[in-house]
Amino acid sequence: MRLLLVRHGQSLYQVRGTACTSDDPPLSALGIVQAMRLGQYLARYQRIDRIVSSPLRRAHQTATIAGEYLGLPVAIDEDVREFEDRLTMSPPLPRSPFEPAGATAITPERARFVERVRRALHRLIPDPDRDESLLLVAHGGTVSAFLHLLLGMPTARLWSANTAVHNLRWTGEFWVIRYLNRQDHLPRPLRSW
């Protein structure tokens, strides 16, 4: 199993902030270009067998645009949507930089979010030994939660850039990180966080 986790392209919320009136904002003009570049890059350099997306518009648009270049449909999974409450969704804090076990308690909201992502993980990857490449387009918090679960790093903080690719491979015994936050498909002026 090869798993490519991708955060959506830049959304209008990222451009307008609180002036954006939508709870489910679409991609910005830059986000559309980022998604196009992602699709071109993946079509050229990766074998993708399946695309799954969050139902939220910014992720679904990103996946659909990339899917056009890959010639693949996009399946929606409700459980890979972003968390609802930013204030209570942070992972627990580590005891120290060298002790990743959480010293702070996980909030009930965070526990429910992680459990939702865990359900999606088991449903989307029922057989990790299968020779398949899955492209999952979601959100920064969701991508981070997937990595926490797969790599056993519950306190790690990972900020994903827009359309950054995180590439993991199951060896039959453990997950190997091939790379994190790769943006080779975007020249510097098209990169955003």
Helix and strand topology:
Layout lengths: L1 E6 L4 H5 L12 H17 L4 E4 L3 H14 L3 E3 L17 E3 L2 E4 L5 H17 L8 E6 L1 H12 L13 E6 L4 E8 L11
Parallel strand pairs: 1-6, 2-3, 2-6
Antiparallel strand pairs: 1-7, 4-5, 7-8
Helix pairs in contact: 2-3, 4-5
Describe this structure as you would to a colleague.
A hairpin with a 4-residue loop joins strand 7 (165-170) and strand 8. Helix content is 34%, strand content 21%. The protein has one domain (2-190): Rossmann fold (3-Layer(aba) Sandwich), CATH 3.40.50. The model has no long low-confidence stretch (mean pLDDT 90). It is of the alpha/beta class and 193 residues long. The chain has helices spanning 12-16, 29-45, 57-70, 108-124, 140-151; strands spanning 2-7, 50-53, 74-76, 94-96, 99-102, 133-138, 165-170, 175-182. The strands form 2 sheets. Strands 3-2-6-1-7-8 form a 6-stranded mixed beta sheet, sandwiched between helices. Strands 4-5 form a two-stranded antiparallel sheet.
